[in-house]
Amino acid sequence: LVHLPKLFLKISSMCSGIVLFPFLNKHCIPPQVSLREQKILSIPGELKGSECKHLDLTENSITEFKILSSMKHLKRLILDKNGIKTLIDFPEVPTLQTLWLNNNNLQSLTSIIDILSKRTPNLTYLSLMMNPVCPDMYFKDGSLDNAYKRYRLLIVYKLPKLKLLDATPVSANERKLSEEQGPDLYRMQKSFEDEDYPNDNIIQKKKFSPPKKPAAYLAKGHVRYNGSQSEGNRFILNNEL
Fold first, then answer.
1. 126, 120 in Cβ contact below 8 A?
2. Could you give the residue ranges of the DSSP H alpha helices within 71-202?
3. Four-residue CA torsion sign, 94, 96, 97, 103
4. Are 196 and 107 in contact (CB under 8 A)?
């Protein structure tokens, strides 16, 4: 028996709803684990080698991901609101299909997609809303910002198995355009990030104009993400300067 004060598993049960259980050992850990708002700095070692398929670590301070490589059954990982700045130490998790990284402090888009394309090759659902790398979605009139469109094309280009990005399914047209425009978008973005030109970047900050409707459901049956919107970034092409 491992005693961890104030640390609990929230187990989702079709029969009895949400039930609270204390940590025991990896053989007692259920497929769905929630450790939301537990003020933890690392993923508990008891999850190592467990059969956990869904792990929710929302609103903690997780920056160490090594243990994820031992979770051979993990399919869905939620890391919203953890203050994450980089995924450089994110391990290979080939089983991972859903990854939420909303409301963190991720700065380099090319770094993120390079890492995820190699270490999470079966990712079908990614959400990066409310990070510095994510452009504003809408103009004041409610139309989709072209910068956000290009951001999507760049990600789909590097993660071709994606079916959902942020709040929206990946369309067949987006997939086609990503094949055509992705290489140039990636090359431009990578160049500016490597050189770190603060005043001449492909990404430029812009005050957020909230859409008329809420951000959206991330997926049918999933948690609705309703954090307050923050200032985002936007792609600027040479012909728009």
1. no
2. 109-119, 146-158, 172-195
3. negative
4. no
Q: Which residue in the block uniquely carries the two structure tokens 């090319």?
A: 110
pLDDT less than 50: residues of the chain? 1-24, 197-241
What phi, psi does 83 have (nearest 5°)? 70, 25
- The answer to whether 174 touches 153, Cβ cutoff 8 Å, is yes
Dist CA 15 CA 166 (whole Å): 31
CA proximity to 181, closest of 154, 147, 159, 146: 154
Q: Which of 47, 45, 41, 74 is nearest to 59 (CA)?
A: 41
Tokens, residue 133 = 């790398």
One-letter amino acid at 76 equals: R
Q: Report the C-alpha gap between 25 and 3 in whole angstroms.
A: 10
Q: Hunting for tokens 């008891």 — which residue is that?
A: 46
Would you say 161 and 124 are in contact if contact means Cβ atoms under 8 Å apart?
yes
Is residue 108 within 8 Å of 131, Cβ to Cβ?
Answer: no
Q: What is the pLDDT of residues 163-185, one digit of tens each?
A: 999 989 999 999 999 999 999 99
Q: Sign (positive/negative) of CA torsion 201, 126, 20, 2?
A: negative
CA dist., res. 55 & res. 99, Å (int): 10
CB 139, CB 120: distance < 8 Å: no
Bridge partner residues of 19 (DSSP): 11
Q: What's the confidence (pLDDT) of residue 196?
A: 58
Instruction: Give the global pTM.
Output: 0.73
User: Is there a contact between 50 and 29 (Cβ–Cβ < 8 Å)?
Assistant: yes
